[in-house]
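Record type: monomer structure entry
Structure origin: computed from sequence
Chain ID: A
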Amino acid sequence: MGSSRTIMVVMGVLFFTMAPRANAQFFKKLKQQAEEKILNKANREVDDIFKANKNPQIEGGTQDSEISKDQNKSEQHTSVQQTTTTFNESDYLVYKSPDPAFHDIYIQKFKGLPRFGSCDFYTRPDNPKMPVMTPEVNEIRSKMKIGYNAFLLLARMHTLKGHFKVMDRTALTPISKPLVEEEVKSNMAQGYLMNFALLMGTDALKKEYFMNDPNGTGNNPIVSKWGGQYSDDFTENEKYVAFVEKYLDKILQWNQTFFEDDTEDFQFVVPLEFKGSYDFDNNGFWVQLPTKRRSSYSMDYGSTRDNYFFEFFPKTPYGQQILNKTQQVEHINAEVLFKVDPTAAEALINDKTKNPQMVVKVRVLYEGFRPENPTIYAPKYTYHLLDPMMELYSDAGLTSKIGEINLENLTYKEPN
């Protein structure tokens, strides 16, 4: 949805531009080129998913958190009305745009909460590695791609609310040395605002603010520069200021609903992998707890640099027990028993059309910026379990349940 590499490139670009004013134009062009690469990469994301391109990311960690919250934030969102029989649009949360100039945000849901991690990309019933390629399904996958990236971006902008308070609304902010904190924050906020406009803006909006079209043909390129390709400094600032005056306050109000009160509840979905063959002595498979995952793939929208599921920080007795146990060397792989009778197990592993998944309800907390390098403003998130029952399904659509694992009563695999 927005990915770790995307955010790392953006951050790198923002701070690479910290050069003397004499070099401002040179570094500005490098920044524009990097941002164009970011957008091109986002457009290739779904295609890469179905070409089985791997995108290793650091994940896993060791922590969990509190159980009660006033009510699911899903009540704030609306469901899309069903328009086709190819897929069920009621499976989506729609975060409505505050202005027609921007697209709504589509996020898959499960049991009323945003679904993060492994998503359903509508693959063929006979082959879970091959996508269905109807126009309707391609459209919803495109909405998903934009939606998850937009969710991550708006949540990130929410963490930078202090930056937007000091952002210069009257002119673009260059970076100079020695570094001035307010300039750094203003420049960073302006960069995220441009990324938002290019990601979420309608074609009409992008043509108005990012296309230089002196002949009125409408065929000139849309680029990541206010005013469009080859626009001068005056036009660039003029377009930026006009956008800010018209849309900024609406955008800032919208992003406050992402990680409101610095928390967000998710259904965290993880591909289910059986570790080894069926264990006839224990009548089940050994599977790895999602709290110890170390890598993920492109279709895993839980994988980002601002990783919501990286640091497991328990708030419940059973969560603390999991943490304590899996910190021990003999249980570092966090393999636990999933009990299933031999007949059902044989059918499950022999049916190659199955795409089994694990689902656990979690709460993610934004803990502030990481202190290691205060000039980078990298957010820190922790997550914890909200439900001791982890559900297992045979399909990515989470329609065919095959069992549960009680996290309060786990059987860990002992070393040989």
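Annotation 1: Residues 18 and 113 are 40 Å apart (CA to CA).
Annotation 2: Residues 1-86 have pLDDT under 50 and may be disordered.
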